[in-house]
UniProtKB/TrEMBL annotation:
Protein name: Transposase
Domain Transposase TnpC homeodomain: 36-108
Pfam families, sorted: DDE_Tnp_IS66, DDE_Tnp_IS66_C, LZ_Tnp_IS66, zf-IS66
Domain Transposase IS66 central: 171-452
Alphabetized NCBIfam families for the sequence: transpos_IS66 (NF033517)
Region annotated Disordered, chain positions: 82-108
Residue span, Transposase IS66 zinc-finger binding domain: 115-157
Domain Transposase IS66 C-terminal per the UniProt entry, residue ranges: 459-496
Family annotation (InterPro entries): IS66_C (IPR039552), Transposase-related (IPR052344), Transposase_IS66_central (IPR004291), Transposase_TnpC_homeodom (IPR024463), Znf_dom_IS66 (IPR024474)
Organism in which the protein naturally occurs: Pandoraea thiooxydans
Length: 502
């Protein structure tokens, strides 16, 4: 319905329904704007109140960069929901400091496709507009001078000029390359922004922590549609890994942290689509896994955490982790030189030998090898565990190790009957292992929004790694292409589909 003529063709009842639907949409949008406005006010209060709380200098800088990122992200979301009226200016936009004239500069010219006026006259160049963008290669800053020539027709006074190229940060100073460097350094190399600021200063141009934080906050919002598309692609797979790892999250207002969790979901090593999506949540409650997976009903490879149990009652198929079962016997053997554990490890070892031999086969061949070589070993292990359980007292470490395997035997051996299933959950555990390094450098996640932003960017970075891409090249390319990429073709920028432009 784009014109009064369209409305004239509607019946009175249809007009009422349309008006009611539009009112619901307006109220929903206004409710979200009010929520974000309140969140922004809370973030500002927390930032200005933080100076009176007990933080070390390093903690305070980490907290401030998180709050600056959150405020910039919220402001951009509000602007997207309620863009300023045409012709108005953002009064809060600070005046940009010119880039130092000592930095090397590279001119990039943008001229019209044709310099012939529509009246047939040759256009004359009468001037130019220059926009400077800051670029960075490790240790060296350069300036890109984007020169847009102005061409005019003296006959009909027509003015022609190449349009301003869209950027991931509208009217921002950083190039996609500089933004990619900041994101990769923060979320792949785990360098907090204040450390990056110090590195930039040694390279000849100090960039304030708050400025870097604003860039990261805006990038987080702009990249979210791509992360959502990655999640949708992942949930089309029939087999997924899942795991979770703790991350400390700051609770501003009392200067303390509490345990939050980074949930990880990824495709299997056998799947041609390589992807991992992280989901940050305030707790380890199973509701977070339920919310992420939604209507997905495939096979989930996971440990024995109770938070997944509700999913299995709803139709998700459980596949256990043989490595978890083996690990309990390995601890018995390493700590107590247990002979029972040693015997169990030998049988587990045979199962893994079959897997190593079958890993490069297709699913059907893998199934056949498992049935012929692994199934008899698994049956022997199961009978042996039952016999040993009768001989050991309840409550001991040996009994607990045996009970874990026997209690989950169906899930642990489900892989034997499906060549698409892995034997364990090690694949996803390897994806979250770098987070341990990150925790040492982050100290904590500054807020729920900051954790969610980190999860989103790390999903793209780690998925790019899984597909063998140079993560910097990938992030730089998608940051350049995303502003003009049609929503219907956003899948082309996903890590498992991405191809660099020539």
């Amino acid at each position: 319905m784009n014109s009064p003529a369209d409305l004239d063709r509607l019946s009175e009842e249809e007009v009422r329904k349309l008006a009611a639907r539009l009112m619901v949409e307006v109220r929903t949008k206004q409710t979200l704007i009010d929520k974000l406005t309140h969140e922004n006010a809370t973030l500002k209060r927390l930032k200005f109140a933080a100076t009176s709380e007990i933080y070390t200098g390093e903690q305070q800088r980490l907290l401030f960069e998180t709050l600056d990122m959150d405020m910039e992200a919220v402001s951009l979301e509000i602007k997207k929901l309620a863009p300023p009226a045409a012709g108005t200016r953002d009064k809060q936009q600070p005046k940009r400091t010119p880039l130092p004239p000592t930095l090397p500069r590279k001119d990039i010219h943008h001229e019209p496709a044709s310099t012939v006026c529509r009246c047939g006259c040759q256009l004359q160049r009468i001037g130019e507009d220059i926009a400077e963008k800051l670029d960075y290669q490790p240790g060296v800053f350069t300036v890109e001078r984007h020169v847009r020539g102005k061409w005019a027709c003296r006959q009909c006074e027509t003015l022609v000029q190449a349009p301003v190229a869209p950027h991931i940060i509208d009217k921002g100073i950083p190039t996609a390359g500089l933004l990619a460097h900041v994101l990769v350094a923060k979320y792949a190399d785990h360098l907090p922004l204040y450390r990056q600021s110090d590195i930039f200063e040694r390279a000849g141009l100090g960039i304030a922590d708050s400025t870097l934080a604003q860039w990261v906050g805006q990038c987080g919002v702009q990249l979210q549609p791509l992360v959502e598309a990655l999640r949708e692609a992942l949930l089309k797979q029939t087999v997924l890994h899942a795991d979770e790892t703790p991350v400390q999250m700051l609770k501003p207002g009392n200067g303390k942290t509490h345990r939050a969790y980074l949930w990880s979901y990824c495709s299997t090593a056998f799947d041609p689509m390589k992807a991992v999506v992280f989901d940050f949540a305030e707790s380890r409650g199973g509701r977070h896994a339920d919310a992420f997976l939604g209507a997905w009903r495939g096979t989930l490879v996971c440990d024995d955490y109770s938070g997944y149990k509700a999913l299995f009652r709803q139709g998700v198929t459980e596949a256990g982790c043989m490595a978890h079962a083996r690990r309990k016997f390995h601890e018995l053997w390493a700590n107590h030189s247990s002979q029972i554990a040693e015997e169990a490890l030998k049988l587990f070892g045979v199962l893994y030998e079959v897997e190593r031999a079958a890993q490069d086969r297709d699913a059907d061949q893998r199934y056949e090898m498992r049935q012929q070589q692994a199934r008899p070993v698994a049956d022997t292990l199961h009978a042996w565990l039952l016999a040993q359980r009768q001989r050991v007292p309840d409550g001991g470490a040996t009994a607990r190790a045996i009970d874990y395997s026997l209690g989950r035997w169906g899930a642990l051996t489900r892989y034997l009957d499906d060549g698409a299933l892995p034997i364990d959950n090690n694949w996803v555990e390897n994806q979250i292992r770098p987070i341990a390094t990150g925790r040492k450098n982050w100290l904590f996640a500054g807020s729920l929004r900051a954790g969610q932003r980190a999860a989103a960017v790390m999903s793209l970075i780690h998925s790019a790694r899984l597909n063998g891409h140079d993560v910097y090249a990938y992030m730089k390319d998608i940051l350049e292409r995303l502003p003009t990429q049609p929503a219907s073709r956003i899948g082309e920028l996903l890590p498992h589909c991405w191809e660099p432009l020539d």
